[in-house]
Amino acid sequence: MKTPILLLIAAISLGTFAAPAKESWKVHAIDPADPANHLAGADGIRVGDVNHDGLPDLVTGWEEGKAIRICLHPGKEKVRSPWKAITVGKVQSAEDAVFADLDGDGQLDVVTATEGKKRTVFVHWSPAAEELEDESKWTTAAFPGTKEKQWWMYSVPYDLDHDGDTDLLVGSKNAGGSITWLKNPGKDKARQLDLWEYQKICDAGWIMSMRIFAQGEKTFLLYSDRKGERSGIYLLPLLNESPWLGEPVLIGAAGEEVMFLDIAHLDDDKRTDIVAAIRPRSIRVFYQPENPLQVWEDMADLDPLPKQFGDAKAVRVGLLDEDPIPDFAITCERANGRLKGVLWSNVFSEFTAVSNATGIKYDRIELIDLDGDGDLDLLTCEERAGLGVIWFENPLH
Question: Are 340 and 369 in contact (CB under 8 A)?
Answer without folding.
Answer: no
